[in-house]
Amino acid sequence: MSEMRLHDPAGNRLYLNAEERAAFLVAAQRQPARNRTLCETLHWTGCRPSELLEITPARIDLSGGTIAIRSLKKRKDASGSTKIMFRSAPVPAEFLDTLNTAHGIREAQTSRRKTAVPIWDLSRVRIWQIVKRVMIEAGIPDAPHRSPKGLRHGFGVHATVQGVPLHMLQRWLGHAQLSTTAIYADAVGKEEQDIAARMWG
Length: 201
What we know:
Elements: H1 18-28, H2 33-45, H3 49-52, E1 60-61, E2 66-76, E3 82-90, H4 93-103, H5 105-108, H6 112-115, H7 124-137, H8 148-161, H9 166-173, H10 178-181, H11 189-200
Antiparallel strand pairs: 1-2, 2-3
Helix pairs in contact: 1-2, 2-4, 2-8
Pfam family, one: Phage_integrase
GO molecular function, one term: DNA binding
Organism: Roseicitreum antarcticum
């Protein structure tokens, strides 16, 4: 398995910085409802596109302010059997209002048939295309971080800068090992300056 990292071999950043994440969110809010909520879900949860495709109305907790995300990375339990794991990602109430309005989440939750239907009936390639187009509209440069993975890594770096404990971030991102999550503590540039400013202050 390849080691996760925040820079490619040429030193290019593989994550969106704070300004790019903010610009992405603004550009996403100008999109049609389906694309907007898709982009906002990736932004607010840090989930993988394949995980986003598994989200159904039943996994949205409108009153609790969370989205249950099924981890699609295969994990084995003590007996060697593959186990299904879910994690709860907290999201802003305003975003849940948007999600509910766009997709009728509350209404779908009252119907057993609709509650198990994925919210976004798309392929991973289509998600990649939508995200890339929104990133282009947001003015994010043509570089390795202009991708859904760059958005996920940006979520991790942002959470670390904001002081989210690594064990909590590990749970939100669905990492099996804390050592994987720890790469976000290696944030650089403005993110590193923000962390250092706390030490200086």
